[in-house]
Design goal:
Largest sheet: 6 strands, mixed
Number of domains: 4
Helix content: 40-55%
CATH superfamily of the largest domain: Uracil-DNA glycosylase-like domain
CATH architecture of the largest domain: 3-Layer(aba) Sandwich
Radius of gyration: 29 Å
Distance between the termini: 89 Å
Shape: globular
Number of strands: 15
Length: 496
Amino acid sequence: MSIRVDLDGPADFKGWREAARRLAQAHVEPERIMWRTGAGEEGDLFDEAAGPDRAQAWPEPVADGPTLTVPRRFVDLAELVVCHRDPERFGLLYRLLRRMQVETRLIEIATDDDVFRAEAMAKAIRRDRHKMTAFVRFKEVETPDGTAYVAWFEPEHHIVELTAPFFRDRFANMTWSIITPDRSVYWDTRTLVFGPGGAKSDVPADDAGDELWRTYYANIFNPARLKIDAMKREMPVKYWKNLPESSLITPLIRAAQSRETAMVDMPQDVTPKRAAVIARQLSEKPPAAERPADGSLAALRVEARSCRRCPLYQDATQTVFGEGLESADLVFVGEQPGDKEDLAGKPFIGPAGAMFDRALGDAGIDRTRAYVTNAVKHFKFEPRGKRRIHKKPGIGEIDACRHWIENELAVLKPKLTVALGATAVRSLTGKSASVLSLRGQVVGSHLAGPVFVTVHPSFLLRLPDEASQQAEYARFVEDLRMVRAFSEGAALPTLS
């Protein structure tokens, strides 16, 4: 007789794993199991004939049953495969699980029929997730609780739960919903909530944001690089109906030849280099460098959200302003936000931030009693595949962002400002200098008064070996102890 397993949903990996472990320990053969999701998927051919009255009872848990072992690669593979729409996916994974108890290196045999099929399903899931992150377009709606954003998407597989954390991290400060035919997800800036699917009619047909998408797409479209087949592979036609910019694709393709000819005939020096763009923007009269009317950090933070003083805002997720006590005696100034800070909107929370917090603790400094900020408020990076790699800000970008440091310090009036790295030194003093030549000393600054110079904690993460890391970490902690001593009334060495 068969054993029927009812899972909580079409992508219930946890339920499958628990059932598979129990059944495998009882040596239940794969062909005796009927996996059901209750999602209207096609099931076993004999489901109806078997029925609840003919299904065999589950085996009792085996207390001293065999220990099941699988490589981590199989677990990662299974988490993807369960999201596929193939109704045989759970049976396939269970069969692999049973086989791996004897064929310990099975997962490494790419030519095995079961392994090949599972890898193909996982590849389809990765592609579907990529398309979701690329082609979701939010529409702005007004609700009784304020502005929210809603999107419609039609995935090929059950990927909503798997992909939702990407949107949670990318749009952490927005209230949004993504509706699909099978499943929907809602984020209220605190919690992800999943629910049943919906209809395309639940999402507004058009809004002002659609016009922004069309403007953006028209400006980035490069006729000289147009390859229609490649474009259709990356942006399949089936997604076009839900993209606001799709109305532009056909006319842009038709006009590509004439636009390409015009680009060839255009003088080659008409597009200024990035440095020239920054220099031009800096030469324009900036807004008056006055603090907001109420003279508070909160008002500065709001003002900084719309900062356009250099081009970095165009690629960054958001402005990352300083954080801490307005009455702090110590202010720490770093370089710029990293990837995690850019997504969360908070300074020093990534790997360098963890190193910084550890060193502060070892030096006896309470971070909650200090103020932490960066010389540059937007994340500068270069894309490498799916990763965003930190790129050092230029002098023009540092100088353009000095407005915010100047206003922060004017409000804070700290006893001591600590420059973490060369970018902070440049921002606070207006001069480029070697950190190694100034480390452990105090320099003057018309913005901040006394400035103590030390390395940025990311410097410790880049050291090649553990011995160097331990030595430099100890030196960094010693620098911070000097900072603490000064805040408590001791004197610091001043640059002669």
